[in-house]
Amino acid sequence: MPSNAVSFTALQAIERRYRLPAGYFEAKVERRGRTRTAKGVAPIAPSERRRLAWHLPDDFPRRSAAEQEEILTWVREVVISGSTDYRRFQAGASKTRYALRFVGLNAKLVGAGVTLPSARSSALTVAPERLRSEMADLLRFKTATLTARGLRRTGVWNAETAAQKVEHFALMFGALAADPDGEIVGCGVDLDKLTLALLVFPAVWDWYLSWREKRRGFYTSWEADMLSIALSLVRAETGWLRQTPSLANHLAPISGLVSSDDIASAKDDWDAACDAMHRHGRSRIKEISRVARVHRDPFEPIMPILEAAKPLAEYRKITDEIVRLMPNEKTHPKAAAEAVRSFLMLRLGLHLGLRQRNLRELLVCPRDRIPTTERRLEELRRGELRWNARESGWEVLIPSIAFKNAHSSFFGSKPFRLVLPDLGGLYGMIEAWITRHRRRLLGPASDPGTFFVKTVKRTSAQAAYNQTTFYEAWRLTIQRYGIYNPYTGRGAIEGLLPHGPHNVQDVLATHILKQTGSYEQASYAIQDTPEMIAKHYGRFLPQDKAAIAAKILNQVWAAA
Predict the structure, then answer these.
(1) CB 149 within 8 A of CB 157
(2) pTM of the entire structure?
(3) CA quadruple 21, 25, 31, 34: dihedral sign
(4) How many of the other CB atoms lie within 10 Å of CB of 205?
């Protein structure tokens, strides 16, 4: 079967020689699920060619150098990176890593289930042993089922929250330890002077807030959130730092930040130092909130969809494009399986409106097996896709405790239960995925039991998705099938940018708001409250409100 650009050039010559219609032979070639190979493309290195191959036109090698450069620039900026201000900032900032690496922290947290990313951070500075020990104590305090005798707390961190907090503190202490004359322009604090006790000094926080403002160019809500963590740590009666005055013994003077007098004062009256930090933090949060700007606008990548009259119908075009470009299962089984997985990711996301974690951790129970009990799902904090014989349909059951907002009034301590509709070939795809495609992608790897699994390769450690890999899988689907490419004719929506699964909630909420004008009904679609919809998810433009009102009022004139 012809597969490279040279072969198709020969076929086009045969078409011209025998006066056949253009594309006569190409129409008879089965879709492979990827673009044709093109050796010897000068402007592209082999490693980058693999990422760009899908997005280049078939005649790319035969185009002029100017046209090739134009295509490559467009693909790199729009499809690969996404041309938003935040994406450009993130791409530049990630080139110079500075966060500390808490090696061996998991071994100290038996039963906490904290998993920290380390594969991409091997070149980072390792946190000193004392700081790692302090961080382990903090995580044990915030993640343990029962608080240690003599301590009090409010709120508990789950595994993902704990990993996120460790990452945030790793950034802060990494900035403090970074070389002042280097690219990071840090504070230059010696590693042996780093301790969580530094968090009770307002001067340390003021330096870090100022450093972040200079690095980004403005303040964001992220800085206010970090200060909120500091307030919880020094809060009276339940703050971990306040209840651990022995940390003051780890303090050492730091030029420009903490003096010997500051340390002596803190040791003499630790509660007073915590009170001073609490007052300072509250004041800084108010000041930052007044000037904070939005850097990562979650609506920007999907604005062409949100501005449509029916956002859900617009997003559905991506799933139609996946079906249109579906490779032949007999000749290219793995490519077909990956396409089916992409289709089901988007379709289940659009039907369920789940957050990323609930969707990627969704378990699957084939028809010939007994579904997992609700009690067991509560223990696992996961949902399951199973066959409901009474409803004759595929049902998703998720205990309320598995949700981030489990205590929201939406749930009322009851599980989330929804029977998926058999529309647009959904059931056929689910059956094909469970019985054939899923097994092909698993290969010899052990089955994690989740509905979605990665394509297992030699370098794969496990078949289950994590937060990063699931986001990248969704983003890759949007790059291939969602973004309209004027050079290849593939892609469903013009002006769309790469994005992750969380944007599905924005699409669902905005669609219902445009159709009904009801924050309450929109909240039902994404398992949240009307207040949160009004505050975060509803990009509800004034002209849409006017259109809904006019539709009702115009009925009088139509009747007349």
Answers:
(1) no
(2) 0.79
(3) negative
(4) 21
The strand pairing partners of 397, in sequence order, are 384, 417
Q: What is the dihedral of CA 11, 13, 18, 23, to 10 degrees?
A: 50
The tokens for 204 are 């340390």
Rounded to the nearest angstrom, the gap between the alpha carbon of residue 192 and the centroid of all alpha carbons in its chain is 35
Is 300-359+407-546 assigned to CATH 1.10.443?
yes
Angle, alpha carbons 477-478-479 (nearest 5°): 90
Mapping DSSP to helix (H, G, I), strand (E, B) and coil, where does residue 388 land? strand
Contact 230, 205 (CB under 8 A): yes
Q: What is the pLDDT of residue 526?
A: 84
**Intervals of CATH 1.10.443 along the chain:** 300-359+407-546
Burial class (CB in 10 A: 0-12, 13-18, 19+), 506: buried
CB burial of residue 478 (10 Å; 0-12, 13-18, 19+): buried
Strands of 72-113 (E only): list them: none
What is the model's pLDDT at position 83? 66
With b meaning 16 or more CB within 10 Å and e meaning fewer, what string describes 338-373? bbbbbbbbbbbbbbbbbbbbbbbbbbbbeeeeebbe
Distance between CA 143 and CA 156 in Å, rounded? 6
Instruction: Give the pLDDT of residue 92.
Output: 74
Average pLDDT over residues 253-268: 94
Among 39-53, 58-72, 403-417, the least confident range: 39-53
Long-range contacts at 372-378 (CB < 8 A, ≥ 24 apart): 374/399, 374/415, 377/402, 377/415, 378/402
Query: Whole-angstrom Cα distance, residue 483 to residue 496?
Result: 5
**What letter would DSSP give residue 456?**
-
CA 252/CA 378 separation, integer angstroms: 47
Residues 277-288 as b or e (16 or more Cβ within 10 Å = b): bbebbeebbeeb
Strand arrangement, sheet containing 363-364 = 363-364, 384-388, 393-398, 416-419
- Do residues 194 and 202 make contact, with C-beta atoms less than 8 angstroms apart? no
Q: Say if residue 414 is exposed, middle or buried (CB neighbours under 10 Å; 0-12, 13-18, 19+).
A: exposed
What residue has token string 């972040």? 212
Report the alpha-carbon distance of residue 175 to residue 192 in Å, rounded.
15
CB 440 within 8 A of CB 333: yes
Q: Are 441 and 455 in contact (CB under 8 A)?
A: yes
Tracing tokens 């309450």 back to the chain, one arrives at 520
Asked if residue 473 has pLDDT above 60, the reply is yes
Q: What is the mean pLDDT of the chain?
A: 86
In this structure, the dihedral spanned by the alpha carbons of residues 473, 474, 475 and 477, taken in order and rounded to 10 degrees, is 90
The kind and range of the H/E element at 457 are none
Tokens, residue 288: 């930052």
